[in-house]
Design brief:
- With about 425 residues, this protein is of the alpha/beta class.
- It has 14 helices and 14 strands.
- Helix 4 packs parallel to helix 5 and helix 7 crosses helix 12.
- The chain is globular and about 65 Å long.
- The two termini are about 35 Å apart.
- About 50% of the residues are buried.
- The protein binds uridine-diphosphate-N-acetylglucosamine.
- The site of uridine-diphosphate-N-acetylglucosamine has 23 residues, from helix 1 and helix 10.
- InterPro entries: Glyco_trans_4-like_N (IPR028098).
């Protein structure tokens, strides 16, 4: 599916899906097909939220979704702990990037449970799904959450991931990208236009009761929600906070989320002390209650430096009717229009960020209108259901394509005895 470089200006833009009616009101459809999501499963962060929302919502559109984790960790733990209406979670731990036993385990699962599609989410799982697809004849979809070549600050890891991703894409049946910017990125890398579809990320419309309402001249509470690591740009917010407090504006920051490393936490603590901001920065750490935290803040600030797809925290804040002050990186401007649902600053630029924050706290923009616009845009175009609907449409086109022989994998449960069930479990409340 790779071809030579394309002129991106000639490619029509794919805009967010707006569902014609509220699908939540309709009863779940009967199940027409089942998909196995091949995931890392190590954490429960942005990509895993997408996966879990899909697992929960796809049955509304006739698709049963199960999971297999190649780096089992937080994801299967959350699935086991919470009373979630998801499907099965299988485990296929890989000892290294090149441990191919997972491929055979997935082949056995496909044959045993009759999965008609594989759906991978990371360069590692793309490699595994690609090989399992070759063994089983089942097509596979690759979900691009962020640009592999700019995915971390580690150049070698970026190169290996990029290489693995490119090699796997040769056999991929279809690509789903979480933003239009990533779709263009994939096409620029050589993916053919008709095999890439944008399915914007989506979240449930959770709008908590507000604890605080900001007023011009009063205190403004900004919240940054993330796994704190250098790429998220916490340093830039601290510099912006220092500029604004120096001007006499009463702005404070709640840092919501854990630090990836102790070294980074130490660096941030030193910066806070250097800027004399200790009284104005509250460290919340990891929370299970992000909506509760969003109810306390007047705006979300997400100053990512590079390499985002479409951050879930941006959409979660919009759902909670919290304006978003973010940077113009990758997919974020597709959800937030500068001056409407929030404000967009230039990345790595504390002066630009301070300017945007200043314009909100001094009343240049009406906070209430911005909060309402954010909530409305999320419910219309970035809901968990619109994301599941868009994903189901991609599956349906693949399953209905003349190339797909639906009979080949209809053995289903008849062959269950051939696969070890020791490493699989079913979430409580499973639809069977
Ligand atoms: C580096 C990377 O690969 N980033 C990708 C990752 O986002 P990444 O995981 O970096 O960040 P996101 O904002 O998407 O997700 C973080 C998630 O963790 C939750 N949270 C955070 C802090 C806390 O204390 N408690 C808590 O529950 C947030 O509510 C949110 O649901 O997946 C996104 C979803 O496709 C992509 O758009 C991003 O490009």
């Amino acid at each position: 599916m790779l071809h030579n470089q394309t002129d991106l200006t000639s490619i029509p833009v794919q805009v967010p899906v707006v569902l014609p009616s509220e699908p939540a009101a309709s009863p779940p459809c009967s199940i027409e097909a089942s998909v196995l999501h091949v995931i890392n499963g190590e954490y429960f962060s942005g990509a895993e939220r997408v996966q879990s929302h899909l697992g929960r919502c796809l049955p509304n559109f006739g698709i049963a979704a199960d999971f297999v984790c190649v780096k089992p960790g937080k994801f299967p733990q959350v699935m086991a702990e919470q009373n979630l209406q998801w499907g099965r979670c299988h485990l296929a731990p890989m000892k290294s990037r090149f441990d191919l036993r997972a491929v055979f385990r997935i082949r056995d699962l496909v044959q045993a449970y009759g999965y008609e599609l594989l759906h991978a989410h990371t360069p590692r799982t793309a490699m595994v799904a690609s090989a399992a697809s070759r063994l089983t004849g089942v097509p596979w979809v690759y979900h691009v959450h962020s640009p592999a070549a700019r995915d971390s600050v580690h150049q070698w890891s970026n190169r290996i991931n990029s290489w693995m991703e490119r090699a796997s894409l040769l056999s991929c049946s279809h690509l789903i990208t979480v933003s239009e910017s990533l779709r263009l990125d994939c096409i620029a890398k050589g993916a053919s236009e008709d095999k890439v579809t944008v399915v914007h990320n989506g979240v449930p419309s959770i709008r908590p009761e507000r604890i605080h309402h900001p007023v011009v001249g009063g205190r403004w509470v900004f919240g940054m929600v993330a796994l704190m690591r250098p790429r998220k740009g916490l340093e830039v917010v601290l510099d912006a906070l220092s500029i604004l407090r120096g001007e006499g504006l009463d702005v404070v920051l709640r840092c919501i989320g854990p630090f990836e490393t102790a070294e980074y936490e130490t660096e941030i603590n030193e910066q806070i002390d250097r800027l004399k901001l200790r009284r104005y920065v509250e460290r919340v750490g990891f929370t299970d209650d992000v909506p509760g935290e969003l109810a306390r803040v007047d705006a979300l600030v997400l100053p990512s430096l590079f390499g985002e797809g479409l951050p879930m925290v941006v959409l979660e804040a919009m759902a909670a009717a919290v304006p978003v002050i973010a940077t113009r990186v990758e997919g974020t401007p597709e959800a937030v229009t500068d001056g409407v649902e929030g404000l967009l600053a230039e990345p790595r630029d504390a002066v630009s960020l301070a300017k945007k924050i200043r314009s909100l706290v001094t009343g240049e923009y009406d906070w209430t209108s911005m909060a309402e616009a954010a909530h409305q845009r999320q419910t219309q175009s970035f809901s968990d259901l619109s994301m599941a609907w868009g994903t189901a449409e991609v599956y349906r086109k693949l399953i209905d394509s003349p190339d797909m022989d639906r009979g080949h994998n209809r053995l289903g449960d008849a062959r269950l005895t051939h696969v070890s069930q020791q490493d699989s479990f079913v979430a409580a409340g499973y639809r069977d």
